[in-house]
Design goal:
The structure holds two protein chains of two kinds. Chain A has no helices and eleven strands. By secondary structure, chain A is mostly beta strands. In chain A, a hairpin with a 5-residue loop joins β4 and β5. In chain B, strands 2, 5, 6, 9, 10 and 11 form a six-stranded mixed beta sheet that branches. A three-stranded antiparallel beta sheet of chain B has the order 3-8-7, with no helix packed on it. A two-stranded antiparallel sheet of chain B has the order 1-4. Classes of the chains: A mainly beta, B mainly beta.
């Protein structure tokens, strides 16, 4: 597709439950990024992929967070045993591999509310 | 370490007035700077990038390496420019973008 598609739009989980978010990057884009935005503040980088390989995971919390980008499937971000502080909007973005500074194309985000 | 600072969280101007959204960065390599905009209820989208040296919707931004700044400017603001603006710093293809905290611009009639 021509836009990054994120599902679901909204997700509500009780504390301790699992949350799984999905992202379909733009066709032909090699890189996928996940960002977390808490309370409309800055975007916190979580992880990026180059195709199905983890490219940069330095932003991922060591525990509870995992992500995958498998061939022919949407990418996913999973949070095991959610906590209240995980409440945020999670944005996915993709970019081409065309040299130095491919701009990121963002999805609409998934709003996760942990109660 | 990469860092982007947008000192103004809120900026309010009247229609037709000039507007400048400030952005300063910290980066040891050769920076790639971007401005992203998020209009109400829309996704974050690229406004412009310094390497293109183009003007989008009347906005321009010049990279000043001496002052480590990439301020966004428009000579005559319009009401439809009201949005959240994020300055972002990147590196090589595939590398993460580091975002500033954003500036909410409101253009009053």
């Amino acid at each position: 597709g021509e836009e990054v598609a994120q599902t679901p739009k909204h997700l509500v989980r009780g504390e301790g439950q699992k949350a799984k978010l999905y992202c379909a990057p733009i066709k032909g884009h090699s890189y996928v990024f996940w960002y977390q935005q808490v309370l409309k503040n800055e975007f916190k980088f979580l992880i990026s992929f180059q195709n199905e390989n983890v490219f940069d995971e330095t932003g991922m919390p060591k525990e509870r967070f995992s992500a995958k980008c498998l061939p022919n499937s949407p990418c996913s971000l999973e949070i095991q045993a959610t906590k209240l502080e995980d409440s945020a909007v999670y944005f996915c973005a993709s970019s081409r591999r065309d040299g130095y500074n491919s701009p990121l194309h963002f999805g609409n985000g998934t709003r996760l509310t942990v109660t | 370490a990469q860092r982007v600072t947008q000192p103004e969280k809120l900026l309010s101007v009247f229609k037709g007035a000039p507007v400048e959204l400030k952005c300063n960065y910290s980066y040891s390599g050769s920076p790639e700077l971007f401005w992203y905009v998020q209009y109400s209820r829309q996704r974050l989208q690229l406004l412009l990038r310094h390497i293109s040296r183009e003007s989008i919707k009347g906005f321009t931004a010049d990279l000043n390496k001496g002052e480590t700044s990439f301020h966004l400017k428009k000579p005559f603001a319009q009401e439809e420019d009201s949005a959240m603006y994020y300055c972002a710093l990147g590196g090589t293809s595939g590398s993460r973008l580091t975002f500033g905290e954003g500036t909410q611009l409101t253009v009053n009639p």
